[in-house]
Amino acid sequence: MIVVAGEALIDLVPHGTGALAALKPALGGGPYNTAVALGRLGSPTAFCSRTSHDAFGEALLDRLREAGVDVSAVQRGPEPTTLALATLDGNGSAAYSFYVEGTADRLFATPQALPAETRAVSFGTCSLVLEPGATAYESLMRTAAAQGVFTALDPNIRAGLIPDADAYRARFTSWLPSVTLLKLSEEDALWLGGTPREWLAAGPAAVVITHGGDGLTAFTRDGTVHAVPGEKVDVVDTIGAGDTVNAALLHALAAQDALSAESLLGLGADGWTRLLRFAARAAAITCSRAGAEPPYASELGDW
After folding, report:
1. Could you report the per-residue pLDDT of 7-54, keeping only the tens digit for each?
2. Alpha-carbon distance 207 to 45, whole Å?
3. SS3 at position 136
4. Across the chain, where does the E strand assignment appear?
5. Positive or negative, the Cα torsion across 283, 285, 287, 292?
6. Single pTM value for the model
7. Do 281 and 230 meet the contact criterion of CB atoms below 8 Å apart?
8. Which residues lie below 8 Å from residue 181, measured CB to CB, with a gap of 6+?
9. Exposure on the CB side of residue 260, measured as CA atoms within 13 A
10. Cα–Cα distance, 249 to 143 (Å, whole number)
11. What number of other Cβ atoms are within 10 A of residue 89's Cβ?
């Protein structure tokens, strides 16, 4: 089982460009989208989070169940659901503002244990910023890594939520010894500073950087670099594209029993090329649809 730990929220998705475009609520949150995508791809998946008892919270859980995701580890609370307001530019790229004060997901508490069948845990986005939940997720990450569980991290930077950039960058660096696979966008990498080589030296076995429509590049601890171009598609928006990459990488690694640092280093050029192309193809399908609508296994074929 792959466990995805992090927030679930409501994206207010604009229909059109500009600040006053009509908005439609959509189920979202980076970790949430990753969990849905994994479920749609057919990977045994569990979601570890905290959601509201309000109507949005119920809808979030319903979609996870529809995707086949185990929600037994989801904590519940009376607080409202977090809202994320997306604004699209002329290229379909999204910028976000958030309504997070007093919301349910940021009150996540560290669970006593992960499911016994856990093979990997994925972390990222707002859940690692907003306290007190951020410390709880961080504790879970460190515990999982200490137990030898494959850990994936996508920081998915939302700068407007980070009050102290330097403190966050230092905290990010402190996570790296507990990370097996680091995935981040080109924009995230620029904001964080540093280089793939520096991050690899701190702990991860591999770093995957996404370049939007230009594809993906993987850097591994043994010094190799692998790159693939993006899949050409008519972009509706990019919401959920990076989360789909996360899911596709984890799904394909699990399918070949490669959820370990040693396996990442042993994939070789052909293995990394196939893996990255599968992730690029999955992300392209998501970009061809409005909102975070990751593909089903039947739309992608074999990884």
Report:
1. 999 988 777 766 777 888 989 999 999 999 999 999 999 999 999 999
2. 23
3. helix
4. 2-5, 9-15, 22-28, 45-48, 50-52, 75-77, 83-88, 94-99, 120-124, 150-154, 181-185, 206-210, 216-220, 225-228
5. negative
6. 0.93
7. no
8. 150, 151, 152, 153, 204, 205, 206, 207, 208, 249, 264
9. 8
10. 22
11. 11
